[in-house]
């Protein structure tokens, strides 16, 4: 088991990092570029495509099996069909950071 604590990397961290690397771009331009990239990734994964970004990781669709659940207030049993969620697997080079 890996005992390393994984750090999170937020959108504002990405924007700040890109602002340092590309000082000639405005914060709005950087934000628009990030939006376009993320929207493209989400659309592709929704269409069952796998998105691989070398040195960063892979985005794919993960299916969650159908299951039943019980409402704790009413004790009513309900069923939830199969659902899908986005899955991210970081690359080995990203994990080492």
Describe this entry's structure for a reader.
- With 97 residues, the chain is an alpha+beta fold.
- It has 2 domains: 9-49; 52-97, Irregular (HU Protein, Chain A).
- Helices cover 36% and strands 28% of the residues.
- The protein is built from 3 helices and 5 strands, in the order H-H-E-E-E-E-E-H.
- It has helices at 11-21, 27-46, 92-95; strands spanning 51-53, 57-64, 67-70, 77-80, 83-90.
- The strands form 2 sheets. A 3-stranded antiparallel β-sheet has the order 1-2-5. The chain has a two-stranded antiparallel sheet with strand order 3-4.
- It starts with 10 loop residues before the first helix and ends with a helix.
- The model has no long low-confidence stretch (mean pLDDT 87).
């Amino acid at each position: 088991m890996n005992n390393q604590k994984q750090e999170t990397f937020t959108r504002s961290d990405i924007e700040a990092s890109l602002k340092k690397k590309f000082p000639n771009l405005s914060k709005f331009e950087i934000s628009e570029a990030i939006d376009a990239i993320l929207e493209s990734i989400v659309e592709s994964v929704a269409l069952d495509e796998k998105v691989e970004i070398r040195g960063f990781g892979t985005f794919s669709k993960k299916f969650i099996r159908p299951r039943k659940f019980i409402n704790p207030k009413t004790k009513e049993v309900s069923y939830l069909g199969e659902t899908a969620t986005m899955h991210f697997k970081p690359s080995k080079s990203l994990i080492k950071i």
